[in-house]
Amino acid sequence: MVYLNNFTFPSRDREFHFFLDIKRTCYDSFYPFGILSEHGFERVDFEPITIFYGGNGSGKTTALNVIAEKIQAKRDSAYNKSNFFADYVNMCSMESEISLTKANIITSDDVFDYLLNIRYINDGVDRRREEIFDEYLSLKYSEFQFKSIDDYEYLKRVNSSRSKTQSRFVRSELMNNVRGYSNGESAFKFFIEKIRGDGLYLLDEPENSLSPKLQLKLKEFLEDLARFSGCQFIISTHSPFLLSMKGAKIYDLDENPVDIKPWTELENIRILYGLLKEFEDVMID
Asked: Whole-angstrom Cα distance, residue 116 to residue 107?
């Protein structure tokens, strides 16, 4: 499914004419002006899976955020915009034959906030667990005597502590600890929960926090959603695993002008291939 057909960024000439009336001495930064135009990146024609590839500072995240702002994609984490961000977005244009109301952008900040929330919950759970440990010992060895109906609930807890081991008592009193996953597993779980069928999703370096094995699982998950569930993905990444996604159209932002390339011709892949070839004789079959 293709929701967004194409997107056009302002050329260097258009940027120049915009700044003819701007007093340059008033500002320290004109971001995002001059970022994408420096690489001759003016137009994107999208496929169900489109990838922006490039090294740090190449502009792939900038391109993703500009598109997200133009199509009014839903985002969870706040995005700090520069003084000229709105002016730049207004100079962009796009074509879409389908409503973009189901457009979402998922950033590294979203994943990080999700992991922090889990850690916060776990910290609370751990504190409560220690309290229940102490409560268990107090109940188990108390010399409680039942005197009135008002003592009934306390009596039940005493009996519960005496009939159970410490661990069983804690589990019965405490909600299940959400710490069942590593950071990488939790990050992968976040994408599984966040990405649903039938929508446009912009993903900014989703490989962060994911092991190679989980990156491959995410790759397969995204491929299946694009093929069977009516999803379109626009992804910024330099992960070799995500770059190998079937049918992905890859824009190489390290080139000037930006060029479309197969994943096997990208610099990162060539470097990785060379490293593996160097140690080919010691690789285990």
From this structure: 15
DSSP 19: G
Give the model confidence (pLDDT) of 223-270 as tens digits. Answer: 999 999 999 999 999 999 999 999 999 999 999 999 999 999 999 999
For 272, other C-beta atoms within 10 Å of its C-beta total: 12
What gap in Å lies between CA 149 and CA 25, rounded to an integer? Answer: 80
Q: pTM value?
A: 0.78
Sheet of 43-45: strands edge to edge? Answer: 43-45, 6-8, 93-95
Q: Which helix (H) or strand (E) holds 127?
A: helix 108-140
Q: What are the tens digits of pLDDT across the range 46-75?
A: 999 999 999 988 999 999 999 999 999 999
Query: What are the CA-CA distances from residue 136 to residues 5, 151, 155 (Å)?
Result: 63, 17, 13
